[in-house]
Every structure is written in C-alpha cells, then in structure tokens.
Amino acid sequence: MTANSNTSIFSNVRGLLSKVNEGRNPLIFMVVYLALTSVWVYFDTQNLVAFLLFLSSAIFIYYLRMTSKAKLIISLVAALIIVPVLGIRNIFYLEVMFQICMFASLALGLNIVVGFTGLLNLGYVAFFAVGSYTWAFFGSQQMYLLHAMPGSQSGTSAFFLPADMFYLFAFIGLAVAALVGILLGLPVLRVRGDYLAIVTLGFGEVIRVAANNLDKPINLTNGPNGITPIQRPTLPPALLDGLRVLLNPIVGHSVSLDEFYNLYFYLLTLLVILLVVVVVIRLDNSKIGRAWNAIREDEVAAVAMGIPLVKMKLAAFAVAASFAGIMGVIFAANRTFVSPETFNFLQSIGVLSMVILGGMGSIPGVIVGAAAVTVLNVQVLQGLSLGLNDLRQSGGVIPIINFAWKDLSSQLDPAKYQRLLFGLILIIMMIYRPAGIIPEKRRKRMPAGSEKPKEPENDNKSAAEAHQEAHDDAS
Q1: pLDDT means per 10 residues in the chain (475 residues)?
Q2: Which of 3, 12, 118, 456 matches a 20 to 30 Å C-alpha distance to 172?
Q3: What contacts 53, CB < 8 A, 6 or more positions away?
Q4: CA distances (Å), origin 292, targets 288, 302, 322
Q5: For position 462, what pLDDT does the model report?
Q6: Which residues lie closer than 8 Å to 369 by C-beta, 6 or more apart?
Q7: Is 458 exposed, middle or buried (0-12, 13-18, 19+ CB in 10 A)?
Q8: How many Cβ atoms are within 10 Å of 363's Cβ, its own excluded?
Q9: pLDDT value at position 17?
Q10: Are 339 and 224 within 8 A, CB to CB?
C-alpha cells in the first residue's frame, strides 16, 4: 500500500470523525452507541467484546463535543443505572468495575507524587497495606488473638468493634496512611532521583515483611496466614427489600445479599474516586499544585523562587498516601481477608504502569490507564485463558496442521504472561507515545487581572503533545 493511499484513508477517517463531532451529532451518536452496547451486554452477559465496547463509551463521552450537562447526565445514567443492572446480571462485571475504581484512586494518588511532583515512588502499595490492616485489625476478631498461636481461631464469635465502625475507620485509615507518608518523607525526601526510588522500594518491602512477621511475640497481623474474617458494614434490610422489588423484574432473578454487597462496594468506590478527582483538580489549580509542578521541572529553581521544598514534598506524600489509605480500608472490607502477599512489590509497579500508560500528570489519562490495565489483567487475559482451557477439554483439533487442542501446553495461557505483556506495552508507549494515552495539558497561568497575550496555537501545547504531533505527521 502506497503512502498516498495511507494518507487518503487517514483523511477519510478524520473527515468522518469531524462530521460525527458536529452539532447535535455527538449527543445522538453517544445515546445510540450506549443503548446498543448496553442491550448487547444485557442479553449476552458472557460476551467479552460487548462489555469492552460498553466500557469504551467512557472514552467517547470524554472526547465528543457535548455540553458539560449532557456529559454529566449520560455518565450518571451509565454509572448509576446501566452498570448496576448489567453487573447484577453478571456479577463479574461489578467486580471489574470495583477494581477499576479502586486502582484508579490508587493511580491518582501516585500521580500526585510521580506526575505532579516528579518523585519516583516504588513503594506506594505500603500505604495501601497500612489502610487495609488498620480496619482488618479492629474490624475482625484479631484483638482476641494477640496471645494466641498464629493461624488459630478465636474462642469467641464476637467481633471487637461493630461492623458500622467501618465508616469511621475509612477516615482513620486515611489519617493513619497520611501520617505514615509524612514519617516516611521526613528522613528520605532530602534525597532525589534514583536514591529516592530505592528508599521507597525498601520502605514498601519493610511494610510487607513487617506484616508477615508481626505474629510474634504478639500476634498483631496473624503473619502469612492473614486476617479473616473482616466485617463488612451492615446494609438496611428494608432498603434491600425495596431494591429487590425494583431490580428483580429487570435482572431476571432474585438479587442475593452478596450481589447487593458487590453493588454497594462498586458505588462506594465510585463515590470515593469522584471525591478524589475533585480534590486532585482543586490541588492542581492551587498554589500547592503550582509548587509541585515547579519542583518537578527544576528543584533548584523552585527553591530559588522561595518554595519550601521538603514541606511541599511531604504534602505530596501525605495526600497520595491518604488516598491509598482510605481505599485500603474499603479493600479489606470488600475481600474480608488481607495477607502480606497482597501488597507485594509488583502491585506498586502495576499502579506505576497505570500512571505511565495513561499519562503522567494527566487526571483523565491516569483513570484511562487504570481502566485499561485492570480490564486487560482481570478480564481479557483471564478470558483468553479460560477460552483455551475450554478448547483443550473439547477434544477438537486445529485445522490444517491437525494439532489436538488437548496437547496445547498450559504454559501458553495468556494470563501467565501479563507482566511480559505490560512490559511490551510500556516499551511501545515510550517509543510511539511517550506522553501517554491522554497527555497532560499544561496551561498558561496568568496573574490575576492581567490580559492573556495572543500567542500561536502551538505555544499552548506541551512539549509531549508537540512531540506526539510531529511523530504523527512524520508517519
């Protein structure tokens, strides 16, 4: 295919996209697309392609030219009505949405440290662990096992605290994780670059190893056995009965208590991520956000301008840790079990890859990166592995080469190569789109009362965006 034909195809596609984005066409397209994909998932609950197309509607909502009111209404309908109905028909979808919201919150917190402030933190999952163990210890029977053998069961069926104390501990976990972030920052934030990355990596491993070994002489964490059962907050029976009357005819079966809990935790994490986004946007537009950006660009120049370097770095660590802390409390209640192996080093790398993939410093980019990595890890690769397993059990053969599916090695399951795939994706992103899926948009900040000067259009673009456009033009 010649270069002229490639140019013609790209121009035709751009022309079609421009027509879709004119007038009321974006709103009509969005409503029709969301309706079709929702109906498809509703009647074919096991179809992976249908669910991925439904999830892609979030990208269209972000990019299409619609009013803010229209985007808000469509988003609320999708998140609060369509997703719960589809999720109750296939409970795995609610689990996927819960993990997307959870990892998006973690990625937004890490984005403050890595994207806004320019500090490489390789032990971010430690704050997540602190929040999880905070509620796991007080929301379980672990208080009665302080002097018992690790792995033993409590002699009483009572829990140390009522289940509804979970709501208070969501804020306690936030505060404890923020305090741990400050305590970590005080001795280490005077170092920078690779040294800071190594120190934070060590801190993350220290927390994991401490949780693994704090089962003696006092059994605080139950060691490698983990803490279980952990309480969930109670759900009002009257509310559940009312929801059953409403949802049962729609979903086609009686909604169980476990399905209600999955719906509850999805809505709770959705609320948390909305609050996190609001806080992050407000911080980014404040003096603190501008100070973080200055530190990221040049620490020496930031200090020369009077920015308190250590204080601002501590603020970044504390805010990021608080997001991980509150999500850790929710995670512990959702899983009703925590163990040290849940918070290993690869979890920190996974969250960091979400930030890099989406775009460091970009709030919508980080959310898209978290969604992409989570869906790829939890659903796509697992679905492909289950499909290969079904083919092995079917007794069929591969056409042409006449190779029996049952002889296909289990070592070829895609789920076993997720880290390899993530590494390849990051390499490709660094080569072809180094600014991420949705690059950060840097704005010209003008003093209050001053008139914004007229500048060429390209001057308002970040260096990453300019590099990306130059690469696209060269292609």
Answers
A1: 54 65 85 94 90 91 88 93 93 93 94 91 92 94 83 72 93 94 83 84 91 89 90 92 91 91 95 94 92 90 90 92 95 94 88 91 92 86 78 74 72 78 85 87 53 45 49 49
A2: 118
A3: 37, 40
A4: 6, 9, 17
A5: 47
A6: 107, 353, 354, 355, 356, 357, 358, 359, 436, 437
A7: exposed
A8: 23
A9: 66
A10: yes
Under a CB-based contact definition with an 8 Å cutoff, are residues 142 and 409 in contact? no
Report the run of H or E that residue 417 belongs to, with start and end: none
Judge whether 118 and 293 are in contact, CB under 8 Å. no
Backbone angles phi, psi at 404, to 5 degrees: -70, 135
Rounded Cα distance, 422 and 424, in Å: 5
The single residue listed with the structure tokens 């704050």 is 127
| CA dihedral (428, 352, 104, 27) positive or negative | negative
In the prediction, which pLDDT does 446 show? 46
Question: What would the DSSP string read from start to end of 329-342?
Answer: HHHHHHHS-B-GGG
Supply the DSSP string of 249-271, one letter for each residue.
HHHSSPPPHHHHHHHHHHHHHHH
Please give, one letter per residue, the 3-state secondary structure of 118-144: CCCCCCCHHHHHHHHHHHHHHCCCHHH
Element (H or E) spanning 475, and its range? none
Q: Using alpha carbons only, what angle is made at residue 317 by residues 313 and 321, rounded to the nearest 5 degrees?
A: 170
Six token digits for residue 321: 């840790």
Per-residue confidence (pLDDT) for residue 390, from 0 to 100? 76
State the pLDDT at residue 469: 52
Is residue 134 within 8 Å of residue 169, measured between CB atoms?
yes
The first and second tokens of residue 4, run together, are: 């002229």
Question: Are 356 and 345 in contact, with CB atoms under 8 Å apart?
Answer: no
Measure the CA–CA gap between 52 and 381, rounded to whole angstroms. 13
- For 352, residues 6+ apart whose C-beta sits below 8 A from its C-beta are 110, 114, 121, 122, 124
User: Where do the structural domains in the chain lie, given as residue ranges?
Assistant: 1-89, 93-347
User: What is the rounded CA–CA span in Å between residue 102 and residue 332?
Assistant: 12
- Distance of alpha carbon 104 from alpha carbon 363, whole angstroms: 10
Predicted structure pTM score: 0.86
Does residue 217 have a cis bond before it (omega within 30 degrees)? yes
Write out the two tokens for 446.
């003008």
